[in-house]
Here is the input.
Amino acid sequence: MPNHPDILRIGTGAGFSSDRLDPAMELVEHGSLDAIIFECLGERTLAFAHRDLQLANGTGYNPLLVKRMNHLLPLCSRHNTCLITNMGAADPLAAAVRTGEIAAQRQLGHLNIAAVLGDDVTHLITPEVELIEPECTVAQIGRPMIGANAYLGSQSITPALTRGADVVITGRVADPSLFLAPMQAHFGWSNQDWQQLANGTVAGHLMECAAQVTGGYFADPGFKEVDALARVGFPIAEISPDGSVVITKLPTTGGRVDRQTVKEQLYYEVHDPSAYITPDVIADFSMVELDDQGDNRVMVCGAKGRARTETLKVTVAFDGGHLAEAEVSYAGPGALGRAQLAGEVINQRLDSVHGSLSERRIDLIGAASLHASAGKFSPDSKDIRLRCALRTPDPEEAANVLWEMEALLCCGPAGGAGYRGHITPSVLTYSALLERDRVKTTVEFIQV
Amino acid sequence: MKARTTLRHIAHARAGDKGNRSNVGVFVYDPKHYSILIRQITPERVKSEFGTLVRGEVRCYPLPKVHGLNVVMDRALEGGVNESLNLDGHGKSWSFLILDLEVEINTDNLETKE
Here is the structure.
């Protein structure tokens, strides 16, 4: 950093843990980027990473880390693009060491690789700590705690950047803060420059879900069309010293950047638009203005900032037992009636034969599933997939769901087919608040 | 002349989640439909239209600069992604619940997405 004297160019390499690889590679190859950010840590992803780390020989970082680094490190090295990611998940130090090994194998040993540590606050979450949602103590949840992580801000990363890091690997950092960090390091915005921090936070918020601002998650045929969706490009943010930002993408990629795509992402997962709280700032998005400049370029300005909160949000993860899900299909005339009868059989069998007490859900996919609770019912389908789902700490209760659903094949209504069933581990995540000064962060450089 | 249509013909939307709270950002294509959006999509209406889905408070934040409305629904995700047994535990498809709501429009200036 930097390639350009006035404008900072930041790209998004991933917007969630399983995001695509090729758009990230194309972006580094052709985007003249100063930095690329891989945001790979959803609310629950870290809980699963903690659980994986606790397994014998388990790793606590993103499962795609090795693949991504193998493909991206040589490109980033060649184009002098800084790579920042929260792929460290529950074990950023191990992720940084592993990244260092890849750099060495690929003879990129001159790369400066840093890990940001300190988000793991499991040791601070004692049984009497109060949660904010639900309002109870950790002990009252009554489940084993898996781990707890504080949302760190931009300033946990900037010390690594000012010391020349080429790669920065973190655990839990607020998503927009991953993007704000290279802006703060480049433009020298102070930690109390609330206005600039809000400008950067808006840019980071728009960028954090990758293709969701460039035409991904947008198409609705007949209403909202997207060109070449299969090749949707990942976004580029061009940040000016005054904090205004242009969101754009490579011209060779599919997708679209215009007022509509940017609007949808601007308020994605936002509640009160005048108070978007991050570890860095409280940003007001309510009066943000969008200027569509054409050619897939939208300028964004008008955010306002005010002083950050004195606490950091902490996600506390607990073991959530087992999620059992099983499905059987019915098709042709009378499909809905046969599927409904099968559902009644399942309810009777799980109640009376197995004494199953956990909350249970029966879906009639094709007639009533995603919107069933909203009272929506489409009775005309002749292709219905019966689904039964249940969550329980008891593995045998979970197994009984699969057993009874499969037994429908011979013992249930006519023509049932296509049984599939699986049991997956489940987690619970709740929030708590910690005073900032109790969360100490450090940067550790890896010896390659 | 007045006519009824679904919101999808004049607006687009995206749903997001945090815990057991859902938000749907809704944006009219044509600024002249903004008043329809903010007058006809009210918290009371959202709460009443969706059966047992929305169990908590609903708040609607007007977004005049982008001709939109942010609909925030508390306790509207059947427990949220960790606890819901719904296939759509994030409520990603709630955007299309909102877009399927009927609105009354003035046909004198009817320019909807057909």
